[in-house]
Write a structure and sequence with these properties.
Blueprint lengths: L23 H4 L16 E5 L2 E4 L4 E4 L2 H4 L8 H13 L10 H14 L3 E5 L2 H19 L5 E5 L8 H6 L16 E4 L4 H7 L4 E6 L2 E2 L5 E2 L2 H14 L2 E5 L13 H5 L5 E4 L10 E5 L19 H14 L4 H23 L4 E4 L2 E5 L5 H10 L2 E2 L1 E4 L2 E4 L7 H15 L5
Parallel strand pairs: 3-15, 5-6, 5-7, 7-10, 10-11
Antiparallel strand pairs: 1-2, 2-3, 4-12, 8-9, 11-12, 13-14, 14-17, 16-17
Helix pairs in contact: 3-10, 4-10, 11-13
Length: 415
C-alpha cells in the first residue's frame, strides 16, 4: 500500500474502542453459518458514527452503513437511549394488542406521507410481501379476481418467494422454481410497454423510485406520472417500494414526493429503524380490505422496534437535517464527477445520499476489495458500478476521505 494513501484504519471513532475480548480471533469460527454471501474475513466488533472496527482494532470508514440502514450512523446515542428506556418498560406484549410506540409511529408516518393506515413488519421483503397480498385481496374483492402485478426488469423487492418472483433480477430467474406466478417484468422507464401489458387481470403496478440493486437507476418523473395516470385510468393500484429510498435517503422524507405522485401503497424498511429490524406498509384507507387473520406476525409492531423507529423519524424531521442530506449529496456527487473526469470513468447517478458511479473499464468489485484493504467500505452492486449509501448525518470530512482513497486506488498507488 502506498504511504500516501489515507490511513483510515488509524482514524479515531467518536468514542475510541479498545478490545478486551481476547477470544474473538482465536475461537470464533465461520463454519457454523450457512454460507449465503461471500463475506470478507473481517469480523466487526464495534462501530461509532461513520466508523466500523474489526477484531484486530482496525478502523474503517463506512460508506455502506448496513446497505442504507444506519440512518444516523453506527450506535448513535439516541438509539442507545431509546433501546434502554423502552426495554425497561415493555418489550413485546404480542401482536394481538396495541402498544404506545406502535400507535405513535403509525400516526407520525401517516401524517407525513399522506397515507392513512400502517402495518409494521420486520424487513422490507415482508412489507413488500404484505403489499402484494393486499393488492391481490383487493383484486379478489373489487376487480373480479384480478391478480397480475406489473414490476420492472432489474428491480429488487426482497428474498421471500413472492418478492423474488416480483423482482426483475436476472440471477433470480431460475431459482426456487416454480415461483409465484402473476408478475409481469417490463423495461424500466418504458411507459409504452406498461400500457400495452395491462389487461383485465392486472391489479397493480409496483416499482422503486430508484432501482438501487440495479446500480442506482432513477425512475423518470414523466414515467412515474404516467404510471399514476394509467392506474387511475384502469383502476389499478400504484405500489411504491421505498425500502431503500425512504426516510430521508434522497433528501426528501420519501423519494416519490419529489416525483409528484400519490401511491395507494408505500413500503418502508432499512433506514426506518436506523439499524434495528423494522419495516412498514402504508396504505390509502380506501383500499384497506384485509380481514382479521389475513396478515400478521409475532414480532410485528413490537414496542421496542417501534420506539427506535419513532426516534429515528423524528430525528430526520428535525430542522436542517434534510438540508444537510441534500448538501452532502451534492458535495459527494460533485466529488465523484471530478473523480470520473480525472480517471475516465462514467456517469454519476442517484439523489441525496444514494449515489453510484460507473467505473468504466475498472472492475468495481476489485475496487471495492482494494478499498476495504485501505479502510474504506463501499458496495459494488454491478461489475461496473460503485454504490454509496452513507449515514445521513455524513460530513464533508468523510466525503473527502472516501474520494481521496478512491482517487489513489484508481491511480494505481494501491494496486
Amino acid at each position: 500500500m502506498s504511504s500516501s494513501l489515507p490511513t483510515m484504519q488509524n482514524a479515531s471513532p467518536t468514542q475510541p474502542y479498545t478490545s478486551t475480548d481476547t477470544t474473538c480471533t482465536n475461537t470464533l469460527s465461520t463454519d457454523y453459518l450457512i454460507p449465503v454471501a461471500p463475506r470478507p474475513e473481517q469480523i466487526f466488533v464495534a462501530g461509532q458514527g461513520h466508523t466500523l472496527i474489526d477484531q484486530h482494532g482496525c478502523h474503517y470508514l463506512d460508506m455502506v452503513q448496513g446497505w442504507a440502514v444506519n440512518t444516523l450512523g453506527h450506535s448513535p446515542v439516541l438509539i442507545q437511549q431509546v433501546l434502554a428506556e423502552q426495554s425497561a418498560k415493555l418489550l413485546n406484549p404480542g401482536p394481538g394488542f396495541y402498544n404506545k410506540p406502535m400507535l405513535e409511529l403509525a400516526q407520525l408516518l401517516c401524517l407525513h406521507s399522506g397515507l392513512d393506515q400502517a402495518f409494521f413488519a420486520n424487513s422490507g421483503a415482508e412489507a413488500n410481501e404484505g403489499a402484494i397480498k393486499l393488492a391481490r385481496k383487493w383484486g379478489q374483492k373489487y376487480r373480479q379476481g384480478a391478480f397480475k402485478i406489473i414490476t420492472f426488469k432489474d428491480s429488487f423487492h426482497g428474498r421471500t418467494l413472492a418478492t423474488m418472483s416480483a423482482t426483475g433480477k436476472a440471477a433470480f430467474e431460475s431459482l426456487f422454481e416454480p415461483k409465484v406466478s402473476g408478475f409481469i417484468h417490463l423495461p424500466f422507464n418504458d411507459l409504452t410497454a406498461v400500457e400495452q401489458a395491462i389487461d383485465n387481470q392486472t391489479v397493480a403496478i409496483m416499482l422503486e423510485p430508484i432501482q438501487g440493486e440495479a446500480g442506482v437507476i432513477p425512475a423518470q418523473q414523466a414515467f412515474v406520472k404516467g404510471l399514476e395516470q394509467l392506474c387511475h385510468q384502469h383502476n389499478l393500484l400504484l405500489i411504491i417500494d421505498e425500502v431503500q429510498t425512504g426516510i430521508g435517503r434522497t433528501g426528501q422524507l420519501f423519494a416519490h414526493q419529489a416525483l409528484g405522485v400519490n401511491p395507494h401503497i408505500m413500503t418502508l424498511g432499512k433506514g426506518l429503524g436506523g439499524g434495528v429490524p423494522i419495516s412498514a406498509m402504508l396504505i390509502d384507507s380506501e383500499i384497506s380490505c384485509f380481514d382479521y387473520g389475513d396478515q400478521g406476525g409475532t414480532f410485528n409492531g413490537n414496542p421496542l422496534m417501534c420506539a427506535v423507529a419513532l426516534a429515528v423519524v423524528n430525528a430526520v424531521l428535525e430542522k436542517d437535517f434534510m438540508a444537510n442530506v441534500k448538501a452532502r449529496g451534492y458535495e459527494l456527487a460533485h466529488a465523484l464527477q471530478q473523480l470520473s473526469q480525472r480517471h475516465g470513468l462514467g456517469e454519476v447517478r442517484g439523489q441525496g445520499l444514494l449515489l453510484a458511479i460507473n467505473t468504466g473499464k475498472h472492475n468495481a468489485q476489485k475496487l471495492a476489495e482494494q478499498a476495504l484493504a485501505a479502510g474504506l467500505l463501499i458496495n459494488a452492486p454491478r461489475p461496473d458500478t460503485l454504490r454509496f449509501m452513507p449515514a445521513l448525518n455524513l460530513g464533508s470530512q468523510q466525503i473527502h476521505q472516501a474520494v481521496d482513497c478512491l482517487d489513489q486506488l484508481l491511480a494505481g498507488e494501491c494496486a
